[in-house]
């Protein structure tokens, strides 16, 4: 197994990978590896495996490790693999973090557990996992999914452990994103997490982005990042408009099933979604087909 790539290389466009499923309902690692290879060839800067896009919390421990290992093997140390290892309990999260590191992950990440917790309990979850993780740790802040809003004081405590390398920040609150990027002397790597505000997140200080829609249009996002870094804000704005239209279209049919259908139309055998997720009906599939043709135009 190749040595994992340094996490600093993930300062850019990092697709959050969905999980393809075989006919028996198990993760289809062959298709996952093929998607990984094609996105590598498209110039992405890393991968986020097992997050909400990849159904991580709906999979068994062994399934999650197998997906991480398949992506890491395909990367061969070219770009970092960030493995989401969050579970509802601390001990299971730490076990999965160790397994992810053994499978080749450059870093591990976790969202707030989906259970009611006091502030001290929530902070304890993040700091305990960060201290125990054998590779750098990246808290995943997604208040719409976790139901928990963090203020700046909490964020400052959350990122205090030296093993915390950055934050996946999936919120439209770019004010807080900007303040987060300045904690710890600006040493944190902050990834913007809502694709529809990618340009705004970069302007606010994000070093890159982790996004669900990157896998269906990687060139759109790598071009936007290049334009921004080159100071060509007119081009970056025009590309952000295209991103916004893409996200709006997917919201109209359901983001996750829409993404899976776009990948299926692109030649990847994604299989049936894992229940309780559902697929698209015929009218929605036709809408996605129109979107797919527009993306290829």
From TrEMBL:
It comes from the Bacteria. Pyruvate binds at residues 53, 210. The keyword Translocase does not apply. The active site is at 140 (proton donor/acceptor), 168 (schiff-base intermediate with substrate). Belongs to the DapA family. Its EC number is 4.1.3.3. It comes from Naumannella cuiyingiana. GO terms for biological process: N-acetylneuraminate catabolic process. SUPFAM superfamilies: Aldolase (SSF51569). GO terms for cellular component: cytosol. Keywords: Lyase. This is N-acetylneuraminate lyase. The keyword Lyase applies. InterPro entries: Aldolase_TIM (IPR013785), DapA-like (IPR002220). GO terms for molecular function: N-acetylneuraminate lyase activity. Transmembrane segments: none annotated.
């Amino acid at each position: 197994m190749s040595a994992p790539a340094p996490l600093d290389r993930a300062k850019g466009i990092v697709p959050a990978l969905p999980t393809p499923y075989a006919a028996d309902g198990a993760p289809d690692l062959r298709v996952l590896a093929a998607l990984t290879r094609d996105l590598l060839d498209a110039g992405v800067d890393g991968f986020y495996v097992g997050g909400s896009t990849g159904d991580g919390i709906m999979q068994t421990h062994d399934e999650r490790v197998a997906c991480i290992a398949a992506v890491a093997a395909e990367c061969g140390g070219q770009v970092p693999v960030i493995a989401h290892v969050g579970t509802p309990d601390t001990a299971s999260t730490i076990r999965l973090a160790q397994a992810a590191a053994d499978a080749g992950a450059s870093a591990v990440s976790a969202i707030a557990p989906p259970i009611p917790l006091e502030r001290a309990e929530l902070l304890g979850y993040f700091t305990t996992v960060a201290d125990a993780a054998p590779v750098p740790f990246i808290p995943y802040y997604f208040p719409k999914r976790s139901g928990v809003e963090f203020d700046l004081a909490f964020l400052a405590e959350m990122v205090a452990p030296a093993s915390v390398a950055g934050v996946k920040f999936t919120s439209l609150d770019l004010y807080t994103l900007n303040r987060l990027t300045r904690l710890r002397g600006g040493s944190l790597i902050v990834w913007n997490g809502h694709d529809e505000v990618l340009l705004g997140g970069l302007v606010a200080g994000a070093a890159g982005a982790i996004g669900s829609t990157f896998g269906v249009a990687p060139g759109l996002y790598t071009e936007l990042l290049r334009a921004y870094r080159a100071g060509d804000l007119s081009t970056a704005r025009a590309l952000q408009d295209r991103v916004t239209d893409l996200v709006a279209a997917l919201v109209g049919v359901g983001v996750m099933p829409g993404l899976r259908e776009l990948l299926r139309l692109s030649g990847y055998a994604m299989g049936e979604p894992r229940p309780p997720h559902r697929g698209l009906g015929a009218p929605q599939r036709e809408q996605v087909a129109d979107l797919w043709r527009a993306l290829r135009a």
